[in-house]
UniProtKB/TrEMBL annotation, chains A, B:
NCBIfam families: rrf2_super. The lineage of its organism: Bacteria, Pseudomonadati, Bacteroidota, Chitinophagia, Chitinophagales. It comes from Chitinophaga rhizophila. It comes from the Bacteria. This is Rrf2 family transcriptional regulator. PANTHER family: HTH-TYPE TRANSCRIPTIONAL REGULATOR ISCR, WINGED HELIX-TURN-HELIX TRANSCRIPTIONAL REGULATOR, RRF2 FAMILY. Transmembrane segments: none annotated.
Length: 142, 142
DNA sequence: AAAAAGCCTATCTTTTTTATAGAGTTTATG
DNA sequence: CATAAACTCTATAAAAAAGATAGGCTTTTT
C-alpha cells in the first residue's frame, strides 16, 4: 500500500496541475480542497520542492507551482521520493537495494527471481505513466 | 515491501517443501535453519495451518508439513494471508477493498485507473507463480 | 505418568507513520 | 520601512503497525 504521504502528494500535484494557470497556489488552499492536515502537507510539498518537482514563492501572493509539465513527472518518481522502494524485496530494488539477511546467493534465489519480475512489471507502468495520465481521467474530482 | 512475516513464511515453506519426504518438521528446526525467532515463527506457521496450507502433528515425532503440493500454493495467497492487500491503493484491492477517503467517483479517478493496471500486472505474476517456482532456482540456499 | 511438541492468547518493545508545534526567513505592499 | 503574508526548517509527539516474547494449555507418544 502507498502511504498517506504519497497519496497526499498525488492529490496535491493533481490540484497544482489543474490550477497551473492561476499562479502560485497556497498550501492552505490545497489542504482544504483535499482534506489534508495543513502542517503535514507542508512537509510533503517541501520534499517535492527539494526534489525539483515544485517551485515556491514566499510572501503575499506566494505559494507552490509545478516546475515541470505533468507529462514530465513519472508516478514512480513520486512514490520513491515519499515512500522509498517500490520493489517487494530489498534485494530486487533498483534505487534502494539491500541484501536480504541470510541470503547466500541472489543468483540462485527463486524469490529474488520472481520478485524481480514483479518489479519489472510494476515499473513498466509506473515509470511510463505520469502526472498527466492521472489527470486526463480525473476532471477535478478530488 | 513484504513484511518480515511474509518473508519468513516463504522461507519456512521452502524448507518444508525441500524436506517433504522427511515427515513432520519441527518449528525449532526451521527457526534454526532460517535464523528466525522460534516464537515468531510459531505464529506464522499457525496462520499457514489455519489457512489450510500446512498440517501439523502434536507430541513426539510431531511437527509441520505441507498439505498441498508446492505447485498448488500461489505466492499471492501467502502474501495476502500474512500481509493483507497486494494492491497499492485500497480502492483497487480485490481482496481487501476499501473506498479511498474523499473519493467521489472511482470510475473517473486517474489514480484508480493506473493503480488497477499495476495490480493486474502484479497479480498476473503472483497468482501464477507458486511455491514450486521459488524452489527450482533455489537449491537449499536458505 | 511424563515428556515432547504444537496451540492459543496476551503482552511488550521497537519502528514507522502520521501529525503538530513553533520559531525563522523571505517578499509584497501601503 | 513596518507589517503581514507565506513558505522554511527542525524538532517533537501521538498513534499505529510490525516484530518479538511469554507462558499456560492441549494433544500425542512412549
Amino acid at each position: 500500500m502507498l502511504s498517506k504521504k504519497t497519496q497526499y502528494a498525488f492529490h496535491a500535484l493533481i490540484h497544482l496541475a489543474e490550477n497551473a494557470d492561476k499562479g502560485p497556489i497556497l498550501i492552505s488552499e490545497i489542504a482544504q480542497e483535499k482534506n489534508i492536515s495543513i502542517k503535514f502537507l507542508e512537509n510533503i510539498l517541501l520534499e517535492l520542492k527539494n526534489a525539483g518537482i515544485l517551485g515556491s514563492k514566499k510572501g503575499k501572493g506566494g505559494g507552490y507551482y509545478l516546475l515541470k509539465t505533468p507529462k514530465e513527472v513519472p508516478l514512480a518518481k513520486i512514490i520513491r521520493l515519499l515512500d522509498g522502494a517500490i520493489a517487494l524485496l530489498p534485494c530486487v530494488s533498483l534505487n534502494y537495494y539491500e541484501k536480504c539477511e541470510n541470503c547466500r546467493d541472489e543468483a540462485v534465489c527463486g524469490l529474488n527471481d520472481v520478485m524481480g519480475k514483479v518489479r519489472d512489471a510494476t515499473l513498466k507502468i509506473l515509470e511510463n505513466k505520469t502526472l498527466k495520465d492521472i489527470l486526463t481521467r480525473n476532471v477535478s474530482i478530488f
